[in-house]
Specification:
The chain is an all-alpha fold. It has helices at residues 3-11, 15-33, 53-71.
Length: 72
């Protein structure tokens, strides 16, 4: 199937199917690069904003400063 035809069919897909396609393509690219990059049923740590009150305080201070500047 030519790429142009495939792209026109992709444009007609609902959003959820486009997201699933993106996930599938990303997984396929990873498989081509390194077969051991992600292992099925393996847990991988990710960063989380929980327990990051210092970062939240910095953001709140920045927002308060910007609000004060706006109100003059």
């Amino acid at each position: 199937m030519p790429l142009a035809e495939l792209m026109s069919q992709i444009q007609e897909l609902p959003k959820i199917d486009k997201l699933r396609l993106m996930q599938f393509l990303a997984a396929e690219l990873i498989k081509e690069e390194d077969a051991n990059f992600f292992v099925a049923n393996q847990e991988y740590p990710i960063w989380s904003p929980y327990n990051c009150s210092e970062a939240a305080n910095v953001l709140m201070n920045l927002l308060a400063t910007k609000q004060q500047e706006k109100n003059g």
